[in-house]
Amino acid sequence: MIFSESKKEIRVMFTPFRDGLQSVFGGKTRLGDILPAIEASAAAGIRHFEFGGGARFQAPFFYVGEDPFECMSTIRKTVGPDVDLQILTRSVSGVTLTTQRTSALALQAKLMHKHGTTIDRNFDFMNDVDNLVKTGQPIVDSGMHHQVCVALMGLPFQSDQAHTPEFYINIVRELLKRDIHFDSVCLKDASGTTDPHTCYETAKGIKAILPPEIPLIQHTHDTASTAVACYMAGIAGGVDSIDLAVRPLASGTSQPDVRSMAHALKGTGYRLDIDPSKMDEIESLLNDGLSEYDFNPVTTSADARVVGFPMPGGAIGPNVHMMKSAGILDKYSAVLAEFPEVVRAGGGWTSVTPGSQQYWLQAFNNVLHGRWEKIDAGYGKSVLGYFGRPPLPPDPEVVKIASAQLELPPFDGDPLEEAPDTLTEAEAALNERGIEVTDENKFLVAAAIVPGKNMELNEGIRLLEGRPKITLPLKKKEPAEGGAALTSPTKTNVTVNSEGGTRTYEVIIEPPASTATPALGQAQPSGGQATDVFSPFDGNVELVEISVKVGDTVTAGQVVAAVEAMKAKHDVKAPCAGRVSAVHAAIGNEVSAGKPILSIEA
């Protein structure tokens, strides 16, 4: 049991409005639904919030139709000028999932500071010190507080070379030798898989070598129900600050509730710097604001299996929602079972974005296609060295397979110099469409660029052109009592009032298409001799590519289209040879196994 003779206050960063949202909903929530709880939190005396970065930067314009910079500015205005607002950035990836150049990271830091950020927590999933130094400098130059991270994880296999206390302490030891200023250090365990003993020894060892003016912060998730124990161990080792949330955005894949931690510290001589009695009001406002949202029990429940599949709460939530949407949630357990192998073969990098997504997608591919039969581009590039140096040597055979499939050689250079020039590409896309080229607009487009993805599907372009894709995890509304389902086209009149007067339009409402789902991977007749071609997924996925047109001749097994599921592109192949007789969908449409993409006549 920890105990301090002299009273010590532990600072709290309040996480429900960034990590809580990301872990439970993938960040897919409207700002207006949480703003009353944010305002009440500031009124309750909370002075340190996490409010942006990570997936909560991408989610507003990827799925909600909101500008993340405007969201950040609104939160800053709501909480006032004296509150610390913190973001999370991903080293060489910034707030994206791909590597960026230093120029993009510098613009990112400038804009984050401009829109209200005071503290930038920066981590590198490889724990590559060179990456941390180079990506930390733009944060320092922007004037923000630079919080450098040591990324923690419990390995799902035995190793005395990585993810040990000495391994973590050496990262800070190396940082202290480098010419980089940092204001604080964070022990960031995104998957909640580090054991309490390692937390204690790591905190104790790092605190012993840190200058006394540099605080040590600890972050973890409660996925395995060990977060409070790990925080207690870290505090015993010298941690000065911890991250906490509040129900319904606490525990499970998120951080512990403030009230749980305050209760655990009773009688120890330690206390939190926020009042746990204020949490009831904040919880009530969140419950009201999120009443329309559908909480998935997978993201709100503890799962001890996470110690064998180190997946962060911030990734479990989005991936569960994507699997459910694609109709493949039944494969969840099989993907988790594949985790230890992809972690071992990759070199044991930390399971935090984008590394966690790379682990997930490779495990997903192994389940769907067979082990190593399809290398995920991100996983392959990490294995080959394009994101930095992993803690352990990757499996040589997997390196060979990745190099062959991706047609890339192994790389030992600077990831920042090898990264594409996304800012130039973004500016060209804005000019081509006649969209104003501002720093914000340019960065929104650049942050959504994925190699090989059609620019028309770029989420930044979509937002700026007023056609964002909105995908909110809302509860399904029951049809009105006595309402009858349409079985045939129905005419009705709609009256529209405008400045020019009143106009009445006749509207024909079509009944929904048949929901009968064809067997996956099988050709389905579409009248006559035509065969329809479907997505390989039962649920809804986005059509991102059509590589044929009406009149083209195709062969059986030829790739004719592609869909995006789990943030990865999946081929759609022709089930037979013949001529393309019709194309039923356009790029950007949602398709499923029940909605044909195109038809082929034999």
Overall description:
By secondary structure, the protein is of the alpha/beta class. A nine-stranded parallel beta sheet has the order 2-3-4-5-6-7-8-1-9. The protein has a five-stranded antiparallel beta sheet with strand order 12-13-20-18-15, with no helix packed on it. A four-stranded antiparallel beta sheet has the order 17-16-14-19. It is built from 22 helices and 20 strands. Helices cover 37% and strands 17% of the residues. The radius of gyration is 25 Å and the shape is globular. Among the domains are: 8-290, Alpha-Beta Barrel (TIM Barrel), CATH 3.20.20.70; 524-601, RNA polymerase II/Efflux pump adaptor protein, barrel-sandwich hybrid domain (OB fold (Dihydrolipoamide Acetyltransferase, E2P)). The relative contact order is 0.11. Helix 15 (339-346) crosses helix 16 (355-369).
Low-pLDDT windows of residues: 486-491, 496-500, 504-526
Placed side by side, the strands forming the largest sheet appear as: 2-3-4-5-6-7-8-1-9
Per CATH, the architecture of one domain is Alpha-Beta Barrel
Rg on CA atoms, Å: 25 Å
Level-1 CATH class name of one domain: Alpha Beta
pLDDT averaged over residues = 89
Approximately how much helix is present in the residues?
A: 25-40%
Q: CATH homologous superfamily name of one domain?
A: Aldolase class I
Distance between the termini: 75 Å
Number of strands: 20
Biggest sheet features? 9 strands, parallel
Q: What class do helices, strands and sheet pairing give? A: alpha/beta
The percentage of residues in β strands lies in: 15-25%
Describe the global form: globular
CATH topology of one domain: TIM Barrel
Counted by DSSP, the helix tally is 22
